[in-house]
Amino acid sequence: MAAVLEATARALLRRVAIEQSEARAPSLAVTIVRDGEPAWFAARGTVEGAVPTPATQYRIGSITKTLVAVMVMRLRDEGALDLNDPIGKHVPSAPVGEVTVAQLLAHTGGLTAEPPGPWWERTPGVPVEALTGALTDESARHRPGRRFHYSNVGFALLGELVARHRGTGWDQAVASEILRPLGMQDTTTRPREPHARGYAVHPFADVLLPEPEHDAVAMAPAGQLWSTPADLARWAAFLSGGDERVLRPATLAEMREPAIVEDGDAWTGGYGLGVQLLRHRGRRLVGHGGSMPGFLAVVWADPADRTGVLCMANTTSGLRGSVATDLLDILDTHEPAIPAEWAPAPADPDLLELTGPWYWGPAAYVLRLLPGRDVALTPLGHPGRASRFAAQADGTWLGLDGYYAGEVMRLVRRPDGSVSHLDLNTFIFTRLPYDPAAPVPGGVEDPGWR
Q: Which keywords does this chain's UniProt record carry (predicted)?
């Protein structure tokens, strides 16, 4: 474990100790991840009379959804489904079949948050046939795509989608295709020793009430899994840095793109494809929270510097959501990330000649080289549309973000081979403002600038 400095460790431990004491959590286990590896672990309280270790299991609740989402994206990459497919194409028994796979992943399908019947988290689960049979047209609370509305039911349907495509349980697919490659051998659907027991803490006395724990069956994809601090650290490392054995880097990046915002104009919290997103003090975090009766958990990871944090407690309520980000703030204060050294990199001469100023009409832009043959086109001295572009095999560039995401930019040369202009989906960028030698749409009035 790449340990943090002693002063950092004490500051982190103090924050954890305050949380466990003030939240009155029977136990609290925390791990800091840096560069894809655990850098610091601490635990307060006890589990069955012993201090929790990185191998102690806790229930992780809705963090389960992130693993189910990765399975769905694997299926998409294999061509087994399209994110725009209605769920009914893959789970015909669902009476809400017009809602798309993407909408379920992003919680924009408008489905009810909880299934019909008693509170599913504290009662034995029912088979998927019973769940889909209990759903009706009234299970939709909002027009699909209209707004964010968290839905546990939606992920139950996604779990069934995975099961039907793999011909096995969703959990078996997750175990063989995600957990084993990542070395998460202690993440299971049922608890194994040593594991924490879930408790409710009396609001006005320091006494505990054991919480029930059941197999959620059809609802299991929404929150069934148990894991350990060591395993969840591996998951944080995956969310920030990826692993091609599990998912293509581009697909993981797609999952981390904001699909919906939870808090309107503030945009501090949102959702991608199966993952929660949080903007905090310059960080763009990806992860998820989890709660089940007797348990709270959260994992956040920052792809920018491969830093992560996770917290696991065996209490129904009381843990402050800020504890994880507070720990990241302490780490930033005591041991801020050091930028990687700059070093020169070779560039093809044909690309070097494209760098520098370009003009869209009278608006100045600058084209810069990125690693490989990728480029960035950004406004120069004025507001405008900035985008990064990935080089394609046919010599064009594909927009990665901003207004031009998904659009194609191509270089146009004159008959003598010299550069004429850039054509970005009909937008013409020239070396001079409204260059009369380039095919500017609408033409350039003679005698030009005056």
A: Hydrolase
